Amino acid sequence: MTKYPKSNIPGFGSDDELGLLLLRTRRAQFKELEKAYGTIGISPEQLGIIDVAVEFGVASIPDIEKRILREPHSILGLINRMVAKV
Fold first, then answer.
1. Apex CA 64: angle with CA 22 and CA 38, to 5°?
2. How far apart are CA 85 and CA 77, in angstroms?
3. pTM greater than the 0.85 cutoff
4. pLDDT tens over the chain, length 86 residues
5. End-to-end alpha-carbon separation of the chain, Å?
6. 2 backbone φψ class: left, alpha, beta (φ>0; ψ -120 to 50)
7. What angle in degrees, to the nearest 10, is found between the helix axes of 17-38 and 44-56?
8. Among 57, 60, 34, 32, which residue's Cα sits nearest to residue 46?
9. Spatial separation of the C-alpha atoms in residues 73 and 61, rounded to whole Å
10. Residue 16: closest CA among 33, 28, 1
């Protein structure tokens, strides 16, 4: 494997090649999801909100926050944009 220079990011040093590989893999997956969901006009985050709403029926911001790992104000912004599209 390639040796990467020491990083300033806590937990990611030159000896943490697996961590860097996982981070790159996650980013690549997210880009692919963005492309796929973009064809139907939603983002992966919006799909996460829809999933929580379907699972719980009525979901609170904390329910959604736990599932998609976003800050409450960010979730509210996503929901407002989704409502504006309807």
1. 65
2. 13
3. no
4. 555 555 566 665 556 788 888 889 989 998 998 898 888 888 888 888 888 889 888 888 888 888 888 888 899 998 898 899 88
5. 48
6. beta
7. 80
8. 34
9. 9
10. 1
